[in-house]
Backbone:
């Protein structure tokens, strides 16, 4: 966490509107995210291996301190892999959302759907249930949106395996380019 904070504390301009991307390594490894939105101040405060409960615990340091106007959250992927119950994941999401809204009710939150992957394909039904629940929460709340990256990573009910690096979990450049086609609509 300290490395993230030191990096951004030196370049973050509090007078500019800020967009925070946070969550687990699928966001942390998106290295050119700032370059994709050059007219915006983007902070990538994601940290590898995180689950929703970790993001809740560190939310002051990785979200709230930047007073963002928009927050993109990618969580749930590791939770499902670590056998967390969907209700437990949703409760943590709810607490994170409340903390953000308590700081500023106008902050726009975009929940990025947990993605499919080669290494976790056997858990796809659980991911599907989580994504359905997250979409429902977003539909029922103001300033909350659901960015569906799941569907574009699948073709004819099969995972696009060419989007992944050797570990079968994290994406390559093509995967991030595909994500960009979805995410850009929520940034602007």
Residues:
């Amino acid at each position: 966490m300290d490395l993230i904070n030191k990096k951004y504390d030196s370049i973050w301009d509090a007078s500019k509107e800020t967009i925070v991307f946070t969550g687990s390594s699928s966001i942390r490894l998106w290295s050119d995210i700032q370059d994709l939105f050059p007219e915006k101040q983007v902070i990538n405060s994601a940290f590898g291996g995180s689950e929703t409960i970790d993001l809740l615990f560190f939310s002051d340091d990785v979200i709230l301190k930047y007073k963002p106007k928009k927050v993109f959250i990618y969580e749930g992927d590791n939770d499902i892999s670590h056998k967390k119950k969907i209700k437990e994941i949703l409760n943590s999401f709810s607490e994170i959302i409340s903390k953000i809204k308590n700081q500023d009710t106008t902050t726009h939150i975009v929940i990025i759907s947990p993605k499919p992957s080669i290494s976790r394909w056997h858990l796809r039904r659980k991911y599907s249930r989580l994504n359905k629940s997250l979409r429902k929460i977003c539909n029922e709340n103001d300033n909350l949106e659901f960015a569906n990256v799941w569907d574009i990573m699948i073709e004819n009910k099969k995972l696009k395996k060419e989007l992944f690096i050797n570990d079968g979990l994290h994406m390559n450049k093509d995967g991030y380019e595909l994500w960009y086609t979805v995410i850009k609509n929520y940034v602007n």
